[in-house]
Design a protein that fits this description.
Elements lengths: L10 E4 L10 H18 L3 E4 L13 H10 L5 E8 L5 H14 L4 E6 L6 H6 L10 H10 L23 E5 L2 H10 L3 E3 L8 H11 L11 E9 L3 H19 L19 H10 L3 E4 L1 H15 L3 E5 L5 H14 L6 H4 L1
Parallel strand pairs: 1-2, 1-9, 2-3, 3-4, 4-5, 5-6, 6-7, 7-8, 7-9
Helix pairs in contact: 1-11, 3-5, 6-7, 8-9, 10-11
InterPro entries: Bact_Lucif_Oxidored, CmoO-like, Luciferase-like_dom, Luciferase-like_sf
Protein name: Luciferase family oxidoreductase group 1
GO molecular function: oxidoreductase activity, acting on paired donors, with incorporation or reduction of molecular oxygen
């Protein structure tokens, strides 16, 4: 499979404004902005925030609002949604929100869209969402995109102002083949949630490339995949930091989601063998180690998948560890990879 060298692959950041134990939500949001400001200096391409609801450890539920805070505190970094769960919203409202963001921060806003609820059914109902509305996702997407078209007095009586006539990149997000197929058919960029749903990744990428139809947006496929990368100055330190990520996914498996927990010295004292296997299955696209180690693992991943961009989640309890991880990941992009490491 043809692939782009790692040094030429754009690196981007997925950030859910995670909330730690013994931390305020305001602190988590300030940390997200601080990360974005550092990421801009380190050469990252974009930062995406994701819509989740009714989860104590995630503070990005009002995604568009938080995007404005991040975009307002940076100057070159692209800021986007990864994603907006479109069935939760009236397409007109999203067009107006993102039209406002694009007007304030031109050529820096991405609109990534998903069809999952980003919540449980009770919360979906509280959002005034028809729990079956995800079945109408293609129609909702078509309506939303129509609001960004130039005004035509003969065909449109409802207008998105601001929003109308703006060129806002629309991405489709997915963890299965559904959005991959739709993105390919419409000629849109596609982002796959490889950081938590690795099982369908290769199938989804294959479907996307197979059905891709050139459009006014793209003349060839553009796929980005989410991965978890935890980097530190030593492999041992990285594994210690990564234990917070393992604990987060362990809490999901146990149906006890909550705030990010501090790292532990021995994760094997916390989970059972069956739980370990379940977490590892979800985190197959997780690369942990020093700069050299993660460079080799990311290079192998790019070769295997042929993706055009990496969306990186780096979960760490301590903000300074998260910053150091992303700094080392940026350095790893240009790190020489030996033949023994790449095999």
């Amino acid at each position: 499979m043809d692939h782009t060298p790692l040094k030429d692959i754009p690196f981007s950041i997925l950030n859910l404004s995670p909330v730690n134990q013994n931390q305020t939500i305001a602190e988590s949001m300030h940390n997200s902005l601080d990360l974005a400001q550092h990421a801009e200096k380190w050469g990252y391409n974009r930062m995406w925030l994701a819509e989740h609801h009714n989860i104590d450890g995630i503070a990005s539920s009002a995604t568009s609002v938080l995007m404005g805070y991040i975009a307002g505190g940076t100057s070159t970094l692209r800021v986007g949604s990864g994603g907006i769960m479109l069935p939760n919203h009236a397409p007109l409202a999203i067009a107006e929100q993102f039209g406002t963001l694009e007007t304030l921060y031109p050529d820096r806003i991405d609109l990534g869209l998903g069809r999952a609820p980003g919540s449980d059914q009770l919360t979906a109902m509280a959002l005034r969402r028809n729990v079956n509305s995800s079945d109408n996702f293609p129609a909702l997407l078509e309506e939303l995109r129509s609001y960004f078209e130039p005004y035509d007095e003969f065909s449109r009586r409802v207008r998105a102002i601001p929003g109308e006539g703006l060129d806002i990149p629309v991405w489709l997000l997915g963890s299965s083949t559904f959005s991959a197929q739709l993105a390919g058919q419409l000629g849109l960029p596609f982002a796959f949630a490889g950081h938590f749903a690795p099982a369908s990744m290769m199938d989804a990428l294959s479907v996307y490339h197979r059905v891709f139809t050139p459009s006014k947006v793209l003349d060839k496929p553009y796929a980005m995949v989410g991965v978890n990368v935890i980097a530190a100055d030593t492999n041992e330190k990285a594994e210690h930091v990564a234990s917070s990520l393992y604990l987060k996914f362990l809490s999901l498996i146990r149906n006890t989601p909550g705030r990010t927990q501090p790292p532990v010295d021995d994760i094997n004292e916390v989970w059972s063998e069956r739980e370990k296997m379940a977490v590892n299955d979800m985190l197959k696209n997780t690369f942990v180690g020093d700069k050299e180690t993660v460079a080799a693992k990311m290079d192998e991943f790019v070769k295997r998948t042929g993706v055009q961009e990496l969306m990186i989640n780096s979960e760490a309890y301590h903000h300074e560890d998260r910053l150091r991880s992303f700094e080392l990941i940026a350095e790893a992009k240009n790190h020489p990879i030996s033949a023994s490491q790449s095999n």
